[in-house]
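User: Second chain of the day. Same drill as before.
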Amino acid sequence: MERLRGCNATALLIGFLYGHVCHAHPTVTLGEVVPVDRQIDVDRIDHSSWDALLKKYVDDAGFVDYAGWKGAAADVGALDGYLSRLSTAKFTGTSTREARLAFWINAYNAMAVRGILREYPTTSIRNHTAKVYGYNIWKDLQLPVAGQAWSLDAIEHQVLRKMGEPRIHFAIVCASKGCPRLLNEAYTAQRVDEQLTANAVQFFSDSAKFAANADSGTVQVSPILKWFGEDFGGDPSAQLKSIAPYLPETHRKLALSGRARVTYLDYDWGLNDRAGRPVGGRR
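Assistant: Same format as last time:
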């Protein structure tokens, strides 16, 4: 369902005549608004349908067969059904941290995939991020959960970052090559810690995300650690120490030394599309 938020036709006309800017945003609502009596504890949410879709359309490096997925109406419908299932979740005092982590990571990733499928073919999520007038996928793609509409921005900043788990930055995927890989399995409460560690290790094994030179004492890292540096530590030295357990063993000593000079790699906003992935290469 889509609707204009903030402006109607009259407001748009008045704004045009008098030179005022009307900030109209077409909201795209995924899932559904679920009455309280139909909501179930987040620990009981079943992620198996999302798991099956990931296994079918995502390769081991996290590239997505968007063309194949969009062309399969039944599987687009299955993703919509999964998002509707996410809308049934509620959070209580007995909800486990692991279930909440898995839920919100899956929700973010499933929303991002659905948002791209809606626009595909496209070359980047940044093609759909209007700043003033029009649709902004970060804010206007929304999923109702527990009486609130959640955008990608809100899930990341208002929920996941506040859970004190920096490894989420190696798990949530904004459909870009510069992101961590989209894991081709659903996160689950039973395995989320193991899955977060595995994806962090894989992230730093990618030379486009991390590189180090012991001779010069330099470390190059993804700008994710600059944008969200406070989640990893108060300064670059502390941040390197926090990620050291996930680095290739040959670079851990440098990261832990406190003397490394940190610079940041470029971020690739190109779509994580399997159709554009070079044969035999990760990039």
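The CA atoms of residues 254 and 260 lie 6 Å apart.

User: Great, on to the next one.
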